[in-house]
Amino acid sequence: MTSRVQHILLAGLILAGLVALAWDAVPLPDAQNRVTRLATAGLGFTSREAPLNEPEKSIYGSAQVVKRIYRVGRENLMAIIIDGARNRHAIHDPVYCFSGAGWVIAGERPLRLPGGAGSILSLHKDGDTREVVFWFSDGRVRHAQPARCWWQMALRRLTFGASGSDPVLVLVQPLNGAGTDWERLPMQLPGLFEF
Fold first, then answer.
1. Helix (H/G/I), strand (E/B), else coil: 126
2. What pairs with residue 135 in β-bridges?
3. Residues paired with 136 in a beta bridge
4. Which of 155-159, 162-166, 176-180 has the lowest mean pLDDT?
5. Which of 135, 95, 138, 139 is nearest to 117 (CA)?
6. In the structure, what pLDDT confidence band is assigned to residue 30 with cuts at 50, 70 and 90?
7. Using an 8 Å Cβ cutoff, are 147 and 136 in contact?
8. What percentage of the chain has pLDDT greater than the value 70?
9. Helix (H, G, I), strand (E, B), or coil: what is residue 102?
10. Which residue in 30, 36, 63, 62 sits closest to 49, CA to CA?
11. pLDDT number for residue 27
12. CA dihedral of residues 145, 187, 139, 103 (deg, nearest 10)
């Protein structure tokens, strides 16, 4: 190897090290302001905060998490919003997560949402059946593609936040086991689509 090639490689290595240090040293803004302004009450709904249980605390770690139980008409819905800016591992693929918890994914279908789409998962476990809706949101676009979310997070890190807002994961499920008309969710809880 020539001396010139060695100098180029050394310069590239130093540059890569400086960029890596900058990524760790430059804090990116999180979605806390978006998540904490989630309405607690409104026309046709009320809510209350729900504490995270111990397994949830260990999974989410330092991530910003809002867990809230909404009363919409006669129905109780639990919403969990996860901002993974402080712990990128907290943003996960819900399919993988529910499968790991012993649920069988019996079906998955899309759900049209303002600014994109979410996904409705049909789950079965020990004779219990339930549905869960999830989507990722960067404040403008909603989608149900974990790989796209991870790409958004990586691109945001590479561009020091210039590529857009950090995506959050939103999970919604009924607590009373009743069939939910998911298509009405944006009208019932419009605040879930504002961040």
1. coil
2. 170
3. 143, 169
4. 176-180
5. 135
6. low
7. no
8. 88
9. coil
10. 36
11. 61
12. -30
